[in-house]
Design brief:
Elements lengths: L1 H12 L2 E2 H10 L9 H13 L3 E3 L12 E4 L1 H12 L10 H12 L4 H26 L7 H43 L1
Antiparallel strand pairs: 1-3, 2-3
């Protein structure tokens, strides 16, 4: 149910075409709620059919011209209703954690290398978020909109910090297990 709300949010920030929304998802919302080009266009059609958004009138009607959309009052009301509603946290599902659990019974072949790869990916994402923070949220920004957007970014920074630290710990455990296996073979 959240993709329509992500689209309503993006359109309230700035009326956009489907292509512009896709690009904006890639640069911001997509960091925490991803969607494909096809999913965005499908949702735009549904939102328009439900009377939550409308295509803006075109200055020059032309075949194949991209439509820009804006949120209607009913769309703003729906987004406000959804924002105010209580939701329970979703259980975290991560294949890497499941693979670690499986490794306990089938062995760790190849897993340490993948942990290193995950560590690098999370470190890069963390640096991307920190760069966005330096660029877009200098000290002293105080408007409500900026503070809320920064809060979302801080969640990304904190999550990536957690993952890099946890992966450092996991890699240290793997190193310790390898050392223990080496000593066990010598004795």
């Amino acid at each position: 149910m959240s993709l329509p709300h992500a689209i309503l949010t993006a359109l309230l920030e700035k009326p956009s075409s489907g292509l512009e929304l896709t690009r904006r998802f890639d640069r911001s919302i997509g960091y925490f709620w991803s969607a494909t080009h096809q999913q965005i266009y499908r949702e735009l059609g549904k939102l328009e059919a439900e009377g939550l958004i409308r295509a803006l009138p075109s200055e020059q009607p032309a075949r194949g011209q991209k439509k820009a959309y804006e949120v209607l009052p009913a769309g703003r009301e729906e987004l406000a209703r959804w924002t105010a509603a209580s939701q329970d946290p979703k259980p975290h599902r991560d294949a890497l954690l499941l693979r670690l659990r499986a490794a306990a019974v089938v062995g760790t072949e190849g897993l340490e290398d993948d942990l290193r790869r995950h560590r690098e990916l999370h470190a890069r994402q963390l640096e991307t978020y920190r760069e966005i923070e330096r660029r877009d949220f200098p000290p002293g920004m105080g408007g409500v909109e900026d503070r809320l957007r920064h809060l979302v970014l801080r969640a990304g920074i904190d999550l990536e910090t957690f993952w890099t630290q946890w992966l450092d710990h996991a890699l240290a455990e793997f190193a310790e297990m390898s050392e223990g296996q080496g000593r066990g073979r010598e004795g």
